[in-house]
Design a protein that fits this description.
- The protein has a six-stranded mixed β-sheet with strand order 6-7-8-3-9-10, sandwiched between helices. The protein has a four-stranded antiparallel β-sheet with strand order 2-1-4-5, covered by helices on one side.
- The protein has helices spanning 40-47, 73-77, 95-105, 110-123, 139-151, 169-184; strands spanning 2-11, 14-24, 29-33, 55-60, 63-64, 80-83, 157-161, 188-192, 205-210, 213-219.
- A hairpin with a 2-residue loop joins strand 1 (2-11) and strand 2.
- The chain is globular.
- It is of the alpha/beta class.
- It contains six helices and ten strands.
- Helix 3 crosses helix 4 (110-123) and helix 3 packs parallel to helix 5.
């Protein structure tokens, strides 16, 4: 599903990633960890085509994204859902519309949108909040909305950048449970975090970034 082959990324004269190679399969749940500034967010941006590699090759669902044209990037992004630490929800839209906005933009019939979005909100335990605005919800509730929004296009990959960074322990466990359920249904989930409590003893694979390289690749 995701293959990095000898990928490097430089910004001017600063080396952010160097000779990074790994592969993730369908349904994998993998943690990407390392100290602040290690390159975790840059690696996620490469997958989502926010950045292009300076060298090396990146394959997403059999598409070489290191070589595609700008016009084909939306085709790749439709395969990927993103869960941000800072939520990035529209404060002027209800919970329902925050999740539905992509489907509305793509012209799906309103009745189909209603059924599908309500189904997603029920899965994340937020069906009761469809008419609420994000700013009236707790951090944990907002993050569940973000996960529903990330799933709305039925992506093959979920990228989660510090998804529990602003949450208390109970809400963090809820979010991790949701992400694990998503991976069990076949979606590849890559979670960038510097919180060891999320992956220690989990049995899941951990890619540890440090000094621009993957220093270790192991099962926690």
């Amino acid at each position: 599903m995701i293959v990095f082959s000898n990928v490097a990324k430089h910004f001017d004269n600063k080396r952010v990633l160097h000779d990074v190679s790994f592969d993730l399969k369908n349904g994998d749940l993998v943690f990407l960890t390392g100290p602040s500034g290690a390159g975790k967010t840059t690696l996620l941006k490469l997958i989502y085509c926010f950045e292009r590699p300076s060298s090396g090759k990146i394959i997403i669902d059999n598409i070489d994204i290191s070589a595609i044209t700008q016009g084909k990037i939306p085709q790749v992004r439709r395969k990927i859902g993103i869960v941000f630490q800072d939520f990035r929800l529209f404060t002027d839209k209800t919970v329902f519309d925050n999740v539905a906005v992509t489907l509305q933009f793509n012209g799906m019939h309103p009745q189909k949108i209603r059924g599908y979005v309500n189904e997603l909100l029920e899965k994340v335990g937020m069906l009761k909040a469809t008419r609420e605005f994000p700013q009236h919800l707790s951090g944990g509730e907002q993050q569940r909305i973000v996960i529903a929004r990330a799933m709305v296009s039925k992506p093959k990959v979920i990228l989660a950048d510090e998804p529990t960074g602003n949450l208390d322990d109970e809400n963090a466990r809820t979010i991790m449970h949701l992400l694990k359920e998503i991976s069990l249904k076949g979606t590849t989930v890559l979670i960038a975090t510097h919180h060891k409590d999320l992956f220690q003893g989990s049995g899941h694979r951990v890619l540890h970034l440090n000094n621009s390289i993957i220093e270790s690749d192991y099962a926690a």
